[in-house]
Structures are given as structure tokens and as C-alpha cells.
Amino acid sequence: MLKQTADTLRLLAADMVEKANSGHPGLPMGMADCAAVLWTRILVYDPEDPEWPGRDRFVLSGGHGSALLYALLHLAGYDMPLSELKAFRQWGSKTPGHPECDIPGVETTTGPLGQGFANAVGMALAARIAAEQWNDKKHVLFGEHYVYCFCTDGDLMEGISHEAASLAGHLGLGKLICIYDSNRITIDGKTDQTFSEDVNMRFKAYGWQVIDIDGHDHRQIEQAVRGAQKEKGRPTLIIAKTHIGYGSPNKQDSSAAHGAPLGAEELLATKRALGFPETETFYIPDKVRDHVADYVKKVKKIHLKWQKDFSGWKKKNPEIYEAYRRQTEKELPAHLEETLLQYRSAKANSTRAHSGYLLQELARQIPGLIGGSADLAASNLTMIKEGGRLERTNFGGRNIFYGIREFGMGALMNGMALYGSGLIPFGGTFLVFSDYMRSSLRLAAIMKQQVIFVFTHDSIFVGEDGPTHQPVEQLMSLRLIPGLKVLRPADETETAQAWLAALRRKDGPSALVLTRQKCPDLHSDGNADPDFDKGAYILKNSSGQPGLIIAASGSELGIALEAAEKLEREGLAVRVLSVPSLETFLRQDKGYRERLIPPGRTPLVSVEAGVSLGWDALAKNPQLCVGLDHFGASAPQAVLAEKYGLTAEALYGKIKAWLEDGENK
Question: Is 420 exposed, middle or buried (0-12, 13-18, 19+ CB in 10 A)?
């Protein structure tokens, strides 16, 4: 039955790709045996409750092999009818080219190689945290499942796999079991053209258990997974030697099976070789359906027992359950904003310092808030002082030391958010290093996951470290990612509001962009502006209609106010706008945008210590964009501000000259 089930999966995938005339049949055909064993002998799941907390997690990191996952979901009884398999890769289907996590049974969106592998590490970490948070001696309900991942040659070539695997081994994530589809073929041909490392030794060096098997031998597959389950202190890599396109008489073991349909003639030959009806497509033997259905009945009993135990735990521990419910639903304290604004220090400081200070109160109020830094906690100020260090002997710690692994950190945070226990992960690094994390940032936005990215040292005012560490284009480039909320606060009150906005946003990631240099306190009354969440608001307004509007973000808001005061002393009515989230403001309705920037000939000046491209979208008014459209230099920040014209005096001079020479007419 395992062979027939595996062959059914192979041919379903091949038929899907053939009908779409697009896709990758090779991986599904090669990994069908491992999938059949896992999904009908080992994996714990319930298709009627895809988000049941006690389920095993299954991640297909090689997302190009999505046809295999969709075939599995159909056979297992998830909301994946055969009609969806026939609509593979088509508009509006539940079977897109790469798996997407809004489809029941799909745990994470995979595609960029290595991301799914690192997501699985994040899920395994979240499971250990959940077990530490909620289990007791009498009730072991949480985090006791396994996280399984199918990964590929491509996943292990990508650098992110090194970062994630290294940290997984260091933390001893024993519930993580990865099955490596070692078929030694990529799009360009055999992997030995570029990939000759000893993967077995590599993962042993990371601290993993490694098991080598024949990926088509069902007995070996099951024994390997059972052996991996017994290893409590190390993650396991099962190296499954497989044949890409297994069963195809002429394309097996060739790159021709990787990323293109087999072709009508070869597909018929494959069906003939496997003993399936040649004239039927999407054929599923009744015995295979019954075989999978019988297994699902068995694992449903595990689910029912878990639910019964959970109900008992809930009844005996009402207060703990209420805390669990609040965390899993990400329910924030009712008076969090009031509490946070009262907690503010009311001092001039860098926004990274304000963030670090406010974080302590946030951590006390929100137990699910957990985070760390890529070896920059002392600079990012992302340490929860009373949180303790998370390590293999203490998964109750709330400070995660990711090491110098920005790429891995981003994907691990996504995995932790996807896990579903209500954790709100945050992670810090310098803004310039956000480039390392871009694929994870993008996927967090695609998946609409609540992940908070803390980026400090946000401009050339990093100073002496020079242009390699001075972000110029990164801030605007982050704003280009659809669904990522970018917040660049100007002082402590705005920093508090930025954190609140990120915590309230359950349907997407946020990036807090914070300064190294000190900023003046621009809200001395401690009152937050109710329009902050609209992306821009009026910070300073002259009576009547303004003769000039200055819009700025972050540390440049202070110099904009100073320049405005100089201009007002000369009789010019100036309105100053704080723009903590440019892309959010640009999405507001026309009425609000025009209330802040009346359309017409009123001159508009934008100020930000980064590339000016993008600020011209504010309005069609005559506009002067003051920014930095070149790299910086190594020098103290005050010198850089003077040399690059980012002081109040220089800004005043630029605006005055612009107004006087008539360029704004």
C-alpha cells in the first residue's frame, strides 16, 4: 500500500504539472516515498482542524515541489478537492505555484530556497517555548509534537540554511526532523558541478544527529524517522538518497525532470511503468483512498484525546488558561497606551534608547513578546532586562541570542509567528543590514505575520563607521515592500506610538527604524497625536493658511522645526508635518492628505537623511526634496551633518534660497 500510495502521489503531481504546462514534477516524484511513509504512518494531523495546537508541523521547504503537498492534502481529506489539483497554478486556485500559508494544511509560504528550512527551525523553537510556558508535571499538552521539514539540495546550498542549522544545533531542538531530498540534481545539471561538501559531516559539526537512508526504501524511511523521534537533545537530518523524477523511464535522474512537465509521451510511459491506467488522469485507486482514510481515523483519536486533556487542564487551571487565551489571541492590555505614555522618561535621547527603555514596560505587560538581536543587543537595546537568556537549558528565557545571523534571524522569527502560540517575535540589527533579511521581510509581509523588525543606526549619523555601515537607500527600499509597515519615530512619544502600532497590527510585519544620535523631545506635554497611525500629522501649525509646508521624519523632524522657527521670524507662515510612516500616509484618503497638504501652489519641502526618491509622491505642489542621494563618509556625526547640509541652519538656507530664486513657481 505504501508503494501504491507513493506512486499515486507521483502521478497526481505529474498530471498537475502536465495539465498546467508549468511546474516541477521531479521533487514530488522523488520524495513521494518519504511523503507516503510520513503522512500515513507517522505524522499527527487532523484535516478537520488544520490549526489544532497539538498537531505535527510539516514544512515543504522546496516549495517548487508544491504539487506533492497539494496531492497529500487532497488524499488526507483537507479542503483541497480534486478540482483544485486540476487547477494547479491557475488564477484563483488553492494550488499556487509555491505553497502559501493561507491554504488549510500549509504551514508556511515557501519558495525562496532555505526560507522554509529556517521557518521550521523557528517553529521548533516556538514549540520548546510553548512547552516551557504552559506544561506542568500533570499536563503535558504543548510543544510535544514534532516539526518535519522536507529540504533539498538547493535549500542546503543557500546561506540561510547554514545560519538556521547552526542555531538549531546550538539550542538542541530535538523535535526538529528534516528529511533531505538528496537527489544530486539541480536546474543546471548535477550538483557535483558546484556542491561537493560532505553534508553529513557538516550537520554533525552543527550538533545534529545525521541518518543516511535510501529514500525509496519504506522500511528505512520509517526506521529513520522513529529513530529521530527518540533523540531528545539534537535535531535530526535524515539524508535520503533519492532519484529525481522517480519512475520516469527517460527523465529520472536528469535536470529535465526538475522544472518542466514530463511531456505527454513520457507521462504515458511513466504510468505504464508504474502499472497505472495510461488513459486516465488524476487517477486515485480506491485502496489508496481507503488506506489514507484509515490512517486519518487513527490520528483523529490522538486529537480527541488531546482535546479531552486540554479541557481538563483548562478546568483545573482557569487563571493559567486565561493567560494562555490572552496570549494566543494576542490580546493587549486595555490601558497599554496610557501606561506606556506615563512610563516615558520625558528626556531627550536617541530613539533606540527610548525603544530600549519602553521595551521593559512592554515586556512586563505582554508575556508573549519575545526577541533578541543579531549580536547587537547592546547597540539595538533590544534586551528585556528581567527576561533571562533563552538557551538549551532555559527555554523560559525571553532574550534570544541569534548570533551574527541576520538572514537566519528573520526567517526564524517568521517561523515563531507562524507557529500559532501567540508569540510576538522582535529582532534587532542595524538598518544597513536589513539587506541581509530582505527575503524574510518580504515573506513576512506576504504571509501577513506579526513580526517586529527593530532597525537602529538609521542614517549617515552612524558617523565614524563610514559608508559601509551608513544606510542611505535602505529606509526607502523597505517602504517599497507591500504590507510592511515602516515606522521612523522622531522622539520618545512617537517611539511609544510606533511600538503600539506594531503591537496592534496583527495582520502584518512592522519595521521600527531608530536613531543612534540623540533627538529633542518634541512632545513635552507627553500627549500622543491621535493621527500618528495615519502616517503623518501636523506637529506645528501657523494661524491661517500656511505659506510653506515642511515634512520630515525621525531625527530630521527636529531640524525642520528649528528651520521653521527661523523662517517664521521672517514673517513666513510655516506648517511642519511629522511623517513617521510615509507609505501609510500615502494610502490615506484624499481628504486627509489634502487637509495636511492643501493642493495648489503652497511650497512643500521634505527632509530625510536618506535617498530623496519617493518623497515626491507626497503631493503635486512645488517641492524641494532635501535628502542624501549618495553614500556617506567616515567622520563624526556633527561633521557629516554640516558637510551634507543636514543642520537646521543649512536647511533654513536651502529653503530660503529655493523660495527666493523662484524654482517653486
Answer: middle
Do 357 and 282 lie in one domain? The reply is no
- What is the model's pLDDT at position 103? 98
* SS3 state of residue 475: helix
Tally the C-alpha atoms within 13 A of residue 223's C-alpha that lie toward its C-beta.
10
Q: In angstroms, rounded to a whole number, what is the distance separating the alpha carbons of residues 350 and 454?
A: 14
**Residue 313 phi, psi dihedral angles, 5° rounding:** -60, -45
Q: Rounded distance, CA 156 to CA 161, Å?
A: 6
If DSSP codes are grouped into helix, strand and coil, which group holds residue 136? coil
Q: Who contacts 497 (Cβ-Cβ below 8 Å, separation ≥6)?
A: 489, 528, 529, 532, 533, 580
Pairing of strands 189-190, 185-186: antiparallel
Strands in 574-578's sheet, in edge-to-edge order, are 537-540, 574-578, 548-552, 604-607, 623-626
Q: What are phi and psi of 89, to 5 degrees?
A: 65, 20
Tell me the C-alpha distance between 309 and 464, whole Å. Answer: 59
Q: For strand 537-540 and strand 176-182, is the pairing parallel, antiparallel, or unpaired?
A: unpaired
Amino acid (1-letter code) at residue 92: G
- SS3 assignment, position 21: coil
* pLDDT tens-digit readout, 174-204: 999 999 999 999 999 999 999 999 999 999 9
- Residue spans of beta strands (DSSP E) within 423-558: 424-430, 452-456, 485-487, 510-513, 537-540, 548-552
CA gap 102, 84 in Å, rounded: 15
Q: How many residues does the chain have?
A: 665
506 within domain boundaries: yes
Residue with cell string 558546484? 194
Residue 261 and residue 233 share a domain = yes
Secondary structure string (H, E, C) spanning 109-126: CCCCCCHHHHHHHHHHHH
Query: How many distinct structural domains can be found in the chain?
Result: 3
Residue 392 near residue 124, CB atoms below 8 Å: no
Specify whether the CB–CB gap between 335 and 375 falls below 8 A: no
Q: Which residues of 1-118 form beta strands (DSSP E)?
A: 57-60
Give yes or no: residues 589 and 455 share one domain. no
* Residue in 371, 453, 439, 423 with CA at minimum distance from that of residue 116: 439
What SS3 state is found at 199? helix
**How does pLDDT run across 277-292, given as a tens digit for each residue?**
999 999 999 999 999 9
Answer for the pair 89, 23: CB distance below 8 angstroms, yes or no. Answer: yes
Say if residue 96 is in the same domain as residue 179. yes
What residues are annotated to the active site?
406
Same domain, 18 and 135: yes
Q: Which of the 8 DSSP states describes residue 622?
A: -
C-alpha–C-alpha distance, residues 358 and 343, integer Å: 7
On whether both 576 and 653 belong to a single domain, the answer is yes
Q: What is the pLDDT of residue 661?
A: 86
Q: Which domain holds residue 654?
A: 532-660
Q: What is the DSSP string of 252-274?
A: TTSGGGTSS---HHHHHHHHHHH
